[in-house]
Every structure is written in C-alpha cells, then in structure tokens.
Amino acid sequence: MARRRLSSEEEALWSALARTVRPIRPSPRALPVTPTTAPLPIEPPVKTRLTSPPARTLKTPPVAPPARTPAAVLDTGWERRIRSGNVTPDTSIDLHGHTLSSAHARLNQAIAAALSRDARVLLVVTGKPPKSAESEGKGRRGAIRGEIGHWLETSPYADRIASVRVAHPRHGGDGALYLILRRKK
C-alpha cells in the first residue's frame, strides 16, 4: 500500500505535536526539524553615543531543574523478581469504583503514606478493561488505567518513583501496577 504525502497543514500540525513529545528512549539520530517561519534577518548594531547611563536590566530567576521521571530500567534482580512473582508489595491501594478525581487524590495519598513508611513496592489496583472491549479487539483501557501514567509523571512524588511495572498475575496482572519507590537519601 502506497503512503500518501501529508498536506502542508498536516505537516504543520504534525511538527507542532512532535515538538511536545518526549521520547521513551532517546534515539541516537536526531530527527530533522522543519522551520515553520523564515528566520528574521539580523541587523548590525547601530553605534550611538550614550548621554545617560544604560537602563538596568532585571535578572531572570533561575529555572528549576525538571523533576526526575520514573526510570525505564531496573537492575536485573528487580526484573527477575517481578517476572517470577517474588515481589511482595509493602502496601496496596484499590482504585475500583472511584471517579477520576477521587482516584487521583487517593493515589497521591497512598504514595505519600508509602513514602512515610519507607515502603519500596506499592501495588496499585486499577482494574482490567471491560470484557467486551477485549473480545472485540479494540484494546480499550479503563479510564483510571488510561490516566495513571500521566498522574504519576505529574505527581509531586515523581522523583521518588523508581519504576512502574505491570503486576504479576497473582497480584492482579494487567489490572494492577507495581510502583517501585526510591530509597530515602
């Protein structure tokens, strides 16, 4: 099947979207960026004689470094324990039956409580997608499961989350997640 070319409007929309996306794994090659507007010509500075002192410029406050995001890879010991089901959650939270806003609030409370108790593994039960969506092949996820990744990335505790993994079937499988929390420094 031959691919069609994007129209100029579609190319502009795609490049705008592509600038807002952070890759999961940085690729070794850089993607070409097409400029949306022509560069402005640079004019040479005009030499003038100053009769008054130059105006003071306000210093901009330093920009805070971005928060750390969950790590993509755990060490092999963790990976082996998760795969074999030998991870025992220190605490768990079940978000079934909650609205998106209440589930988000409960998730943040559970992470805060787990961190205060120095827990390493938090089991978050989100629920599996409806059976009708699985059988029809739509791949539709539940609303909470669809939002939880965004919630964790923007959480005030994002720098304390080492990794997020799908739970072993004995802990809920596709309907649950392990949050591996970083140790205190």
UniProtKB/TrEMBL annotation:
Region spans: Disordered: 27-70
Composition bias, Low complexity: 28-40
Pfam families: Smr
Occurrences of domain Smr (ranges): 93-182
Lineage: superkingdom: Bacteria
PANTHER family per UniProt: DNA ENDONUCLEASE SMRA-RELATED
Name of the protein described by the UniProt record: DNA mismatch repair protein MutS
Organism whose genome encodes this protein: Sphingobium cupriresistens
Top-level taxonomy: Bacteria, Pseudomonadati, Pseudomonadota, Alphaproteobacteria, Sphingomonadales
